Structure formats: structure tokens, C-alpha cells
């Protein structure tokens, strides 16, 4: 299955006639088919990460020997670390909720990359922070969509960075991460890589960016483009 629908609640917001595609990323937490709804990765993650690293080191230095009770210093470092961690989580959720509210207010149907963090255990600090931000933002969007009866469609992420949103051709090779522009060898379409992916989400979910009701199947769009 290409996408799955999040169960609709009762519509509590007026219809907008607009649909949105959402692609998740590291620098931009969300790149969407509408420039006004893109979400940059909020800076508070980084500052807090620096703090967390500092407390981690403090804890490592003060770690009690086996069988010995933890020192006051160790417990204090642990307390500070937990506090800093909680603060970031709260900020993250707050940012996610604010964004989700705006997205849900402005769109009837939203096609979302069904992102599953795979690098949470390993990966760089930036990657971990990005994964956590995406996780919180996606959860907020699903919750907000449900609450207001919006049509949220989770799109399987396979090949979404390789497909052309314009003609549906699939690139033969994965784009290198540094390559920010998607160029289609089949139709010549070039667009910013993440914007292309956001459009692919729409097509995959069966939503037509040009359609007012957002209910036309992807085939209709593809035939028109051909
Ligand atoms: Zn193309």
C-alpha cells in the first residue's frame, strides 16, 4: 500500500479547497508544497544539545565506582541533564503544535511522509535532534488533523526523493545528499529536491495540487501532464 489514511474525525473547520504535501528533513523539519508552510528546524535544539553534552561529560566524570553510592555531584549533573532534556522536548512539542495548527487550518487534506526515525540510536547529534523534531511535529500534525476532521494521508517514504513529481519518472540513482536540486532526465523538470519530494507525496496520496476538492486520483494528474 502506498499510503494509509488516518481515520477522520468530525470536521470542525470550514473547508479550504486546499491540499498540502509534506516532506521531512534535517535542516528544514518540514518542506511543503506551500512556501508559507515550510518549517525550519528550530534552533533551540542545538543550544540545548550543547548543554546536554556538557551534562553527559559531567556525569561521566563523576560516575560512581561499581558498588559505591552516587556522589552529590553525579546526582546533580543527572538532575540538570533531565531538566534540560525535558525543556527541549517541551519546546519541540510546542513548535510542532503551532505549525500543525496552521497547516490544519489552511488545508483540507494533507499528504505526509510516513517518517520512521531509523538513526535515533546512532547518528550524529544533528541527525538525532532532527529525528526528534520530525517525530514530535508529525505526531502533532496527526493529532491536530484528527481533532479537526482533516484528511491526513501517510505516504510510504520509499523512493520519494527519486521520483519526479512532474512526470512520475524514477531516477536511476539515489540523489547524493549534497545535491539540493532534483533534475528529471525524462521530462527535464528541475526543482529544489525537497519541494519535489513534497509534491511526490501529494501525487502518491492521490491528491491533486491543482484540484480544489483534492480528491482526484493520481492517474488524472499524470494523464494531464503527459
Ligand atoms: Zn519528470
From TrEMBL:
* UniProt cross-references to InterPro entries, sorted A to Z: Cas12f1-like_TNB, Transposase
Q: Mind listing the UniProt keywords for this protein, alphabetically?
A: DNA recombination, DNA-binding, Transposition
Q: Which Pfam families match?
A: Cas12f1-like_TNB, OrfB_IS605
Tell me the superkingdom of the source.
Bacteria
Span of domain Cas12f1-like TNB = 141-199
The chain positions of domain Probable transposase IS891/IS1136/IS1341 read: 12-115
What NCBIfam families does its record include? guided_TnpB (NF040570)
**Record family assignment:** In the C-terminal section; belongs to the transposase 35 family.
What is the official name of this protein in its record? Transposase
Amino acid at each position: 500500500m502506498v499510503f494509509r489514511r488516518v481515520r477522520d474525525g468530525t470536521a470542525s473547520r470550514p473547508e479550504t479547497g486546499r491540499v498540502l504535501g509534506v516532506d521531512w528533513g534535517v535542516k528544514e523539519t518540514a518542506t511543503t508544497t506551500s512556501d508559507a508552510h515550510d518549517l525550519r528546524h528550530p534552533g533551540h535544539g542545538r543550544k540545548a544539545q550543547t548543554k546536554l553534552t556538557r551534562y553527559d561529560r559531567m556525569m561521566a566524570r563523576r560516575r560512581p565506582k561499581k558498588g559505591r553510592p552516587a556522589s552529590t555531584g553525579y546526582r546533580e549533573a543527572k538532575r540538570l541533564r533531565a531538566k534540560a532534556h525535558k525543556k527541549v522536548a517541551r519546546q519541540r512539542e510546542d513548535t510542532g503544535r503551532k505549525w500543525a495548527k496552521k497547516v490544519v487550518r489552511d488545508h483540507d487534506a494533507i499528504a505526509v511522509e510516513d517518517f520512521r526515525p531509523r538513526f535515533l540510536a546512532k547518528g550524529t547529534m544533528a541527525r538525532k535532534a532532527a529525528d526528534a523534531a520530525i517525530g514530535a511535529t508529525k505526531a502533532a500534525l496527526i493529532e491536530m488533523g484528527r481533532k479537526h476532521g482533516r484528511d491526513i494521508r501517510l505516504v510510504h517514504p520509499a523512493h520519494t526523493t527519486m521520483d519526479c513529481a512532474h512526470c512520475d519518472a524514477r531516477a536511476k540513482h539515489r540523489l547524493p545528499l549534497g545535491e539540493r536540486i532534483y533534475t528529471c532526465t525524462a521530462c527535464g523538470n528541475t526543482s529544489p529536491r525537497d519541494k519535489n519530494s513534497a509534491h511526490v507525496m501529494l501525487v502518491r496520496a492521490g491528491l491533486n495540487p491543482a484540484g480544489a476538492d483534492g480528491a482526484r486520483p493520481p492517474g488524472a494528474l499524470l494523464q494531464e501532464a503527459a
